[in-house]
């Protein structure tokens, strides 16, 4: 292998010569190395005394790097994409110019924004003007209808926990809206929002959208209207700033990056390797971060055409063509490998060409992921994903209500909760979520996997925003009971009076309630003999009047849980009913 001089001035100052080969001595204790998978030559790294050596087939042991200082640790070999060098930036905005060039290159060479933006021109109701005057300490909240142009950035961040009974003072409220429109100071904002302002200015963009500033937080009408437009807010943004390393609004996300010294080396056939003191890991730095475990952030990330992730180890620019990691280095996945970045300029339109079963498996994993994410206000569970569901509805296209999709009605209705999850229904103050939607409850949910498309819809089932219309059945077989067999699956086995297994059941709430009498059959397995048939069902109970009486005459029911029944269970057709 031979060294290829690196243009980074930080490394050029460390240039020296060993055996006539230009190289740079890395003044760090533990060195970590990164070799791309495209390298065909086997490279062995090792440490002898205080030097790092490489050994290629048919060659003798030769030094790769110069004299090392620090403890004699064994080097770690990482088989990932080439990693960039980042200076130890001493000012907040020093990282921004390369990202500005990356955005300009994406504008000129990619179609990331054109595929994700709404067909019509869109602007949020308000935008934060980060440069209303020549004073860098001044800001102003502008009416977007009078804004200069339509380019803005959007911020994705964690608010953090508030003290009980207290709300953040920096929010826009009805009482300070007029003052915000006249102008206010940068010092009034917490550090994370201040950092976002500096980045916006550094990228040469005049406007920034921040939920807590651009939506009137104590005006229910304004909040409901603007929060439902999140689909377009992030899809129309020039780029999204992700404060990935900031656990709350007061911490900030600029400054403090570790020093990542590194250099490129090149084999005789021209293949490049990158050796760095800090091997970046996009999956750990971004996908496993605290920010990307928040419910609101899922649609913010999936709908954004481009995102800049400010992590504690690295700054990444993410678009539909890959990951920009600085210093001219791009990370891309190859066919057959895990897609480790989320942005897809054709999402969710790509769902139309993915195939019926494949599309459901993707949507299933998406909904399960969302349900596991944290959310400060449980009543935001429905609205925090509403923009994403609106996009899915347009892409398939089919009706989507409360996270349930008509194309996959029988599959998406067959959700279940964990048996140990004792959290109850969510109190939606301004709206109603029906009992058949997984959005009715707090906590994670799972859906029955059907990767091979073996579930066949059974009977007539239809739905709208308020009710599910279906044939209701009643058990005529006496002595059925649910038994907890001690398996940690959340399922209770169903036995008849003779001790025969009749299927299984998982309840949404109170597990001490009597065995359900009523059910709706949603699906059955395809291509099996009659005696082997299994039916996938929702267990129901009649809704009660205010006096506590069952409203059987109205044929109004609510969901109790779901499960599977053997095909020879004895049932009676009660008639068409509504599940609410």
Automatic annotation (TrEMBL):
Residues in coiled coil: none
Region listing for Disordered, in residue ranges: 63-85
InterPro entries: HET
Boundaries of every Heterokaryon incompatibility domain copy: 152-300
Feature: compositional bias, Polar residues: 69-82
Protein known as: Heterokaryon incompatibility domain-containing protein
Organism in which the protein naturally occurs: Colletotrichum higginsianum
